[in-house]
Write a structure and sequence with these properties.
mainly alpha; two-stranded antiparallel ribbon
Length: 219
């Protein structure tokens, strides 16, 4: 996390230059505001409290809610861009089908509500579940185009499908020129997630995990 001095310096130069003041991240021409991020993190924490009352525990590390939620907000933008690049148009019916298949069904199998399934299971604010269903619908349409509607049965074929999907997502990410406000972290193109940025002024000559973050698209 940034020190108070570095954070103040960022404000002085319009959010460190690469990110607009008041923005948590910029994806293409779309601005994800800090206020939006704050509100959605609050929604996730409220869901966590309800989950805890039902004795349902988060499956992802706690204390990283800001990075986890910002990752989701950016990911939704990436998949919207993926749809644009591939001319994919998903209908409300397709989204509803994916919500039933990919959210409601597995939630029931795990004896959870959809809210518990997405919040405790994926650190996703429950109010954003429809966006996740849309993401699944876009991905399903992309898979159909890649496979021609015939899912590969062999390991090699499945691996090829995964590589193709990951490449398409990478290209969509690259076209958006994703920029994260250092106050909230940095975007790792390897994991397609926002990770906590190392202290800018820290004097640490030894390599760290943060130094291995892929800051540019590998595609």
């Amino acid at each position: 996390m940034l020190t108070a001095a570095v954070a103040a310096a960022c404000v002085a130069v319009s959010a460190c230059g690469s990110v607009q003041l008041g923005a948590a991240a910029i994806t293409g021409g779309t601005r994800i505001s800090s206020a939006t991020l704050t509100n959605e993190v609050a929604n996730l924490n409220a869901a966590y409290k309800q989950d805890k009352a039902r004795k349902v525990s988060p499956q992802l590390p706690v204390g990283q809610e800001t990075q986890q939620v910002l990752t989701w907000l950016i990911t939704f933008q990436i998949y919207d861009q993926l749809a644009v690049l591939h001319g994919i148009h998903v209908t409300p019916l397709q989204v509803a089908q994916q919500e039933s298949r990919s959210l409601s069904a597995p939630a029931r199998q795990n004896k959870l509500t959809v809210q518990e399934y997405v919040s405790a299971g994926g650190a996703l604010p429950p109010n954003l579940a429809p966006k996740l269903a849309r993401l699944y619908a876009i991905e399903a349409a992309l898979v159909y185009r890649i496979t021609g509607g015939k899912s590969p049965s062999s390991t090699a074929g499945q691996s090829k499908e995964t590589v193709a999907i990951n490449h398409a997502v990478c290209l969509a990410s690259k076209s958006l020129d994703i920029r994260v406000n250092p106050q909230f972290g940095e975007y790792d193109y390897t994991s397609h997630s926002v990770v906590i940025a190392p202290p800018t002024l820290a004097a640490n000559p030894s390599p760290s995990k943060a130094a291995a973050v892929q800051l540019t698209p590998p595609c």
